[in-house]
């Protein structure tokens, strides 16, 4: 019995001295509605988000659901773009077309 008392006492003391407490504060972050970061400051952002969401929901109900890049962040778009078999020329053409389309909308 005395052996157990002698060996367990230092363990109890060591456990008390090395306990850690969480000192992390309260963290907050703003909720991002949708659309990628480059559309963050457009005036009709909420309207476009609702249009894309309702379109996505309607297509999902009919079984024709698709991934909508308009509702994805830029990092999600890049990840998605890396998972297809397009050539560099095709991607450049798509980028050019997208840029021209956005200029016409402004």
TrEMBL record:
Residues 37-69, 94-106 have a biased composition (Basic and acidic residues). Residues 37-106 are annotated as: Disordered. This is Mitochondrial carrier protein pet8. It comes from Cladophialophora chaetospira.
């Amino acid at each position: 019995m005395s052996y157990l008392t002698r060996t367990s006492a230092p363990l109890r003391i060591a456990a008390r001295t090395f306990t850690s407490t969480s000192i992390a504060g309260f963290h907050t972050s703003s909720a991002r509605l949708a659309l990628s970061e480059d559309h963050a400051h457009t005036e009709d952002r909420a309207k476009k988000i609702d249009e894309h969401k309702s379109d996505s929901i309607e297509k999902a109900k009919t079984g024709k659901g698709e991934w909508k890049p308009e509702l994805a962040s830029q990092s999600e778009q890049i990840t998605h773009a890396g998972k297809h078999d397009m050539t560099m020329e095709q991607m450049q053409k798509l980028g050019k077309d997208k840029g021209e389309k956005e200029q016409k909308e402004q």
